[in-house]
Amino acid sequence: MRLNGKAALVTGGSRGIGKAICLALAENGADICIVDILDADEAVKEIEAKGVNCMARKADVTKPDAMEAVVKDVVAEFGNLSILVNNAGIARDNLLLRMSEAEWDVVLAVNLKGPFVCTKAVVRQMMRQKHGRIINISSVVGIFGNAGQANYAASKAGLIGFTKAAAKELGSRNISVNAVAPGYIMTEMTGKLDRAARERFVQNIPLTRPEMPDEKAGYAEDVAACVVFLASDSASYITGQVFPVDGGLAM
Ligand code: NDP
Fold it and tell me: Could you say which of 149, 168, 203, 235 has the lowest number of CB atoms within 10 Å?
């Protein structure tokens, strides 16, 4: 699983699943660049403590100029850009009839346009290297839908289509593109769900861990482990796939 000498750009890496992904990639030797609209100082310190290089850029994933500048900085600093994790994502839940155009637009912009912008920004460099790993963080909601999340489900389903199209386009350049679809993972995002929504998810999760019989939710580290696998040489013959990390929720 060693990723020594490889640089990874992780969007939304300052907290939650993104931060766990950064730490797990760093644990395996990758240098990290966090892109977030939030301050990432704390995350940078934790990542550097793993003995790798880490930089952070405050940027919006929907802005092509900003993302191209970040990619230039990463290549100048680390000498390569081998892994892109499109993780930044937001939710603005509402019932369809109440959902505003603004709630629709902002979720589609960050969750779907963002990965398009970031992928486009890294691909030329990956083509030059003849190597690249792009990992998109979708959601089980993009597979089975969810009431009150029409915007979010559409963005995450769209990301799966994007993953497959990009995998077909970029495969001949040794760039793989895969998606991870987390289920119900404990983060600040799911902390905002109401109790009924939380219970709906939890009661449909088959897998129980003996050490935590009352806790069916997953952890950011569960998602990060799958991302590390997809970024590693062990996954060099896998592309265009969607990997649920959900305790069986999406079955
Ligand atoms: P968090 O909200 O904890 O973290 C997301 C990070 O992305 C935040 O720091 C956020 O900043 C940042 N971000 C938001 N918009 C932008 C932007 N335009 N440009 C750069 N950074 C941005 O989310 P999670 O860790 O829970 O989720 C990570 C990913 O996993 C998301 O794509 C989410 O949809 C997906 N996911 C999560 C699940 C879960 O159960 N938690 C389940 C399935 C999928 P800010 O807070 O300021 O918006």
Answer: 203
